[in-house]
Amino acid sequence: MEIYTVGGAVRDELLGLPVKDRDYVVVGATPEVMLAQGFRPVGKDFPVFLHPRTHEEYALARTERKTAPGYKGFAFHAAADVTLEQDLARRDLTVNAIARATDGSLIDPYGGLRDLQDKLFRHVSPSFAEDPVRILRVARFAARFPAFKVFPATNVLMQEMVAAGEVDALVPERVWQELARGLMEQQPSRMFEVLRACGALARILPELDTLWHATQNASHADCINAGQHTMQIVDRTAQQACDLSIRFAALMRGLGRHGPQLVSGTKQVEAVCARIKVPNDSRDLALMLMREQEQVAQALNLPATGIVALLMRCDAFRKSQRFLDMLRAAACLNDAPFPPAGYLEQALQVARQVDSGVVAAALQDRPQQIAQAVQAARINAVDAWLLNSANGGAA
Length: 395
Ligand code: CTP
Known about the structure:
Elements: E1 2-6, H1 8-14, E2 23-27, H2 31-36, E3 40-41, E4 48-50, E5 57-60, E6 62-66, E7 74-78, H3 84-89, E8 99-101, E9 106-107, H4 112-118, E10 120-121, H5 133-144, E11 149-150, H6 152-163, H7 172-183, H8 188-197, H9 200-204, H10 206-209, H11 226-239, H12 244-252, H13 265-275, H14 280-297, H15 304-313, H16 320-332, H17 339-352, H18 356-362, H19 370-390
Parallel strand pairs: 2-5, 10-11
Antiparallel strand pairs: 1-2, 1-8, 3-4, 4-5, 6-7, 8-9
Helix pairs in contact: 5-7, 5-8, 11-12, 12-14, 12-16, 13-14, 14-16, 15-19, 16-17, 17-19
């Protein structure tokens, strides 16, 4: 039997990037041979095995055939007579269909090296269309390798897949998984560009897609539409190495503010999150940013009561990290320094110094007044801080 390194590991190595996982293809073996050598099977009928020592994945060379719409409808054929070329032919992109033999030589039947050099994402064969997840993958790879372009015929193929309803058959978990990974890449806007170019964004996130048809606030210097503006914001979250929930909140924050009928942005964010099963932490941050972004931007003009009310609405005393994440997201909405973020962070620190235990102890006989008294003490603390700051901080 022969063993080849394949897929992302070969691609990333050729691009001079660090390699995380290595996938191997085994040609000329059977499951029995693999088991006899100590490999452990993954799953029941899939021809993938884990190396007994390294635990890396070794798959028998296989061909695949689509049997049903969506992401699980596959039958495969793995046998000792499946060649490396056949296995590479079932893969999505030419740059992912290069193999490296154990002697270091490259096997590249579909022009992957040339496409790496030309920075092109090109489908290996029409069977690309058998797996709609590949549309999301191409978009995600574009966010990771921003200089790469989608080969025109590949884009046409993806458009046909979208028109055939393939994207609608994707399971929500997979959509979120790929979008989340793309959001964490260096230029997430490229992912959305690719999804728009093939029409997939209108199917997956129609609420976001419409932003490209909405004119941005007339005062916006660059005269860009709301979609382009959102992309600048999301790329800023990537430049600042923000967490996923912050990137997602920034992506969602423009929803529902444009268009002929003003649909509530909150409702739209809720709909998106329910549809693609966005995890709670990302959803909650997106909703909070949507709700509070204007108040946060106005923070420097708020009285102490307004600041404390904002902190309480955001549950900032119990979930302070989430509040700080929202401030970070809010800061990314601007292309200039954003003083309200640091200001509110300080206000939170000041308000937190109120010892609610002491306040509660003093009101043991009137427990129904505790919450109000704690709030009043926090307002007093923030008021004193504001006064002190107004006087130049000379306490
Ligand atoms: N592959 C494919 N179609 C898919 C998923 C995977 O053709 N829907 C093939 C590609 O050849 C890919 C390889 O299987 O390179 C390994 O897949 P995976 O590990 O999921 O992705 P990578 O390309 O390695 O990318 P990443 O760096 O994101 O893991």
